[in-house]
Design a protein that fits this description.
The complex is a heterodimer of chains A (328) and B (164).
Chain A lengths: L1 E5 L3 H12 L5 E6 L3 E4 L6 H11 L4 E2 L3 H7 L4 E4 L11 H10 L3 E4 L2 H17 L4 E2 L10 H8 L5 E7 L2 H13 L3 H10 L8 H4 L2 H14 L10 E2 L7 H9 L2 E10 L4 E10 L10 E8 L4 E7 L3 H20 L3
Parallel strand pairs in A: 1-2, 1-5, 5-6, 6-7, 9-11
Antiparallel strand pairs in A: 2-3, 3-4, 8-10, 8-12, 10-11, 12-13
Helix pairs in contact in A: 1-12, 4-5, 5-10, 7-8
Chain B lengths: L1 E5 L4 H11 L3 E7 L10 E9 L2 H13 L3 E4 L7 E9 L6 H9 L5 E8 L7 E9 L2 H18 L2 E5 L5
Antiparallel strand pairs in B: 1-3, 1-4, 2-3, 5-7, 5-8, 6-7
Bound molecules: NADP nicotinamide-adenine-dinucleotide phosphate.
């Protein structure tokens, strides 16, 4: 199966590396970053492109754009891994729309388009008989969407809660373990590359809230937006508060919660018993789903990272190939 | 604790099973059948048991959901406790008033308040424990605390689930 990559950053390169190292039956026929692109219907030499990106900062020829890649048509699946824009979802939304309209499958890790335009994009995909998959948008490597849609098919999902932001989880872990202040822990997270230069979206709970919106719309069809989520971040937390929780043999984590029946969509720091299964360490993510037949199921894993996110993207691509294309 | 249940075969067992499920140790059962009671009337059963305080709440919930009415629990009436953590200018936003508004609501009492005083002008953190006689009332008391906190610009960190 031929794939075209839009975005050649941490995630894009992770996908390229996995495709070149592993025998997955995938070939990359086009790549674009913000300033260049490369298109070759016979398959690109991935090692070459990775090396060029490393040394020059460009993946291909200046002047070849993401739009050229989309129009080239030399791919079966468009893999869209450009930066997230939570306000307009663009330019990713435009890229995805055009590829779907042209009858191509799309796999993305980009939260913007899925959170803002889930219904419209899914309708478009259905009308062209192609797939749009987005496993990587929520909880990185954890196969949460797959579990909810397929593994737990037939169950009613009555509630879901979890740790959706690794940056916040890291900060809280460090405040608890070392008694660091919030700002010290944030600084450390930045130095280790766990937090962006502008960590606002993470620490104010917005990133977790966007993930709840994606789940609310895709799993329950709640037609929610960010405004529907009751959001409290971790930026007001004190080391003292964590110590008080410790006295109760508890700790504090940033928890995203969906109870569809009550239309509860909430991100807030919560007190949890230390042995609660959602109390995971460092940058891990964890999600518990409550179902009517299967009972409670908890998934724990890495919520971000180059290779980890590539894992979710590749699983989506192979799912399309093995469970959609080959059956139709 | 004193239980009230339907006078039907199997009811007493139904009431005892949840107690052993939460590892409660039954010390005595006083079960007086009233000879004049008609079938279907409720009967009173008193059970003395030894149980970790943390398990009591879930036991009461299970019993209630099985149609067993818990009439009275021990000597202590306000048995349901909930702790939340508050962050903000707790003192300067009139702590006495915050506590009074809970106490005077009739829903719950502030049972404990532990506060950590930080450096001047830094927000302080406190653990506040409410106790009440029912799950419903303690839930409403927490709602009230939440709205008082919002009004005063305090952050409330609530438990995800009940904990002791
Ligand atoms: N990193 C993770 O662990 C993770 C996990 C889950 C989801 N995600 C999501 O995955 C996406 C990619 O993340 P990332 O970490 O790989 O980001 P990144 O390292 O910043 O890479 C973004 C890539 O997109 C390229 N790009 C920017 N604007 C473009 C445009 N208009 N057209 C084509 N390419 C463009 C950039 O080009 P240049 O190289 O020229 O700058 C860069 O190669 C984001 O939406 C992110 O939210 C990431």
């Amino acid at each position: 199966m031929r794939i075209a990559l839009l975005g050649f950053g941490s995630v894009g390169r992770g996908i390229a590396e996995a495709v070149s190292e592993k025998d997955l039956g995938l070939s990359i026929t086009a790549v674009a970053d913000s300033r260049s692109g490369i298109i070759d219907a016979d398959g690109i030499d991935i090692r070459d492109v990775l090396e060029r990106k490393r040394t020059t900062g460009l993946c291909g020829t200046p002047g070849i754009t993401a739009d050229d890649v989309i129009e080239s048509g030399v791919y079966d699946v468009l893999v869209e891994v450009t930066p997230t824009n939570a306000d307009s979802a663009n330019p990713a939304l435009g890229y995805i729309t055009r590829a779907l309209a042209a009858g191509r499958h799309v796999v993305t890790s980009n939260k913007g388009p899925i959170a803002l335009r889930y219904d419209a994009l899914m309708q478009l995909a259905a009308s062209r008989n192609v797939q749009l998959r987005y496993e990587a948008t929520v909880c990185g490597a954890i196969p949460l969407i797959q579990a909810l849609e397929i593994g737990l098919a037939g169950n009613t999902i009555t509630a879901l809660n979890g740790v959706f932001n690794g940056t916040c989880n890291y900060i809280l872990t460090r405040m608890t373990d070392e008694g660091l202040s919030y700002s010290q822990a944030l600084l450390e997270a930045r130095e280790l590359g766990y937090a962006e230069a502008d960590p606002t979206y993470d620490v104010k709970g917005v990133d977790a809230a966007i993930k709840l919106v994606i789940l609310a719309n895709s799993i329950w069809g709640l037609n929610a937006s960010l405004d529907d989520v009751d959001i409290t971040g971790i930026d007001g937390l004190t080391t003292d508060a964590l110590a008080l929780a410790e006295d109760l043999n508890c700790t504090i984590r940033l928890i995203g919660e969906i109870i569809p029946e009550k239309r509860i969509l909430k991100v807030s720091p919560r007190v949890l018993s230390k042995d609660h299964s959602l109390v995971v360490r460092d940058t891990l993510n964890a999600v518990t789903v409550e179902t009517d037949m299967a009972g409670e199921i908890t998934l724990i894993g890495r919520g971000a990272g180059s290779r980890e996110t590539a894992s979710a993207i590749i699983a989506d691509i192979l799912f399309i190939r093995d469970c959609h294309v080959e059956r139709t | 604790m004193k239980l009230e249940m339907k006078d039907k075969p199997g009811q007493l067992i139904a009431a005892l099973k949840p107690i052993s499920d939460v590892e409660g140790n039954i010390m005595a059962i006083i079960h007086q059948r009233d000879p004049s009671a008609a079938p279907g009337d409720t009967i009173d059963v008193q059970i003395m048991l030894d149980l970790p305080g943390s398990k009591l709440e879930s036991l009461v919930e299970t019993l209630t959901s099985q149609g067993v009415n818990v009439v009275r629990i021990g000597e202590e009436r306000l048995l349901i406790r909930r702790s939340v953590i508050l962050i903000g200018h707790i003192m300067h936003t009139d702590l006495t008033d915050t506590v009074d508004r809970i106490d005077s609501s009739g829903l719950a009492e502030v049972a404990e308040l532990g506060m950590v005083m930080p450096a001047i002008n830094e927000p302080s953190s406190a653990k506040i424990t409410l106790k009440s006689s029912s799950l419903e009332e303690i839930g409403r008391a927490i709602d009230l605390l939440r709205s008082v906190a919002r009004e005063k610009g305090l952050l409330v960190i609530e438990p995800l689930e009940e904990y002791p």
